[in-house]
Amino acid sequence: MQRQVNSEEFEVTEINKKIKEVSIDGGKVRIRSGQKGVSCYFRDYKAARVNSHYYGAFFQDNISLTDCINSQDSEKIITCIGDGHEGIWNLFKEISVESKRREILDWYHLVENLYKVGGSLKRLSKAKNMLWVGKTEEASKLFVGLKGKNAANFPAYLEKHKQRIVNYKLLQEKGLCSIGSGAVESAIKQISARIKISGAQWNAENVNQILQLRCWYLNEQLAS
User: Fold this and answer.
1) 131 and 222 share a domain?
2) Which of 59, 74, 90, 213 pairs with 99 at a CA distance of 20 to 30 A?
3) Exposure string (b/e) for 129-147, b if CB count within 10 Å is 16 or more?
4) What is the pTM of this model?
């Protein structure tokens, strides 16, 4: 397999529809150290899901990832969906221009962080209902004065992402776009099914090739 990967260039997928939605997430790959007696180590790669099923992944090459997306035709508004990781939103900043991006914080990650606060279930339920319709400031007030690290951090988390916390209820009812990045997380798992097989280690210079090969498979671009 390694010889086949090295002998063929797998070009990045060309998307035949205008880009309207992008989600990005990160995965890890085990790298061979190349030094006798030195253990392997893990490094990050980033993968993107574009529209309904196109995938692309790059190993420590964020510029190629964003360039790949920017090279495609896009709708007037591109919806960018991600979790709270700062690195993901730094990548989104390089996609298109700010006026064309609709940035959405993944609803399910938002709720996950909400329930980390703990305490009164009634308070948590009330906050969840407020956030579902984008009422960030009202939800934040429910946690003022509470003790505990998570309770103190959550209002700051809401403040940081307030422009990305939208009216999820409306978006879902209108069917305008997704409200979660679960599909790209699923893509990471599907990519990992190949690159993280038992005992697998990769030379750093070969990782992008195996990622592209896996993406071609997921995009149904490999010849039968």
Assistant:
1) no
2) 59
3) ebbbebebeebbebbeebe
4) 0.84
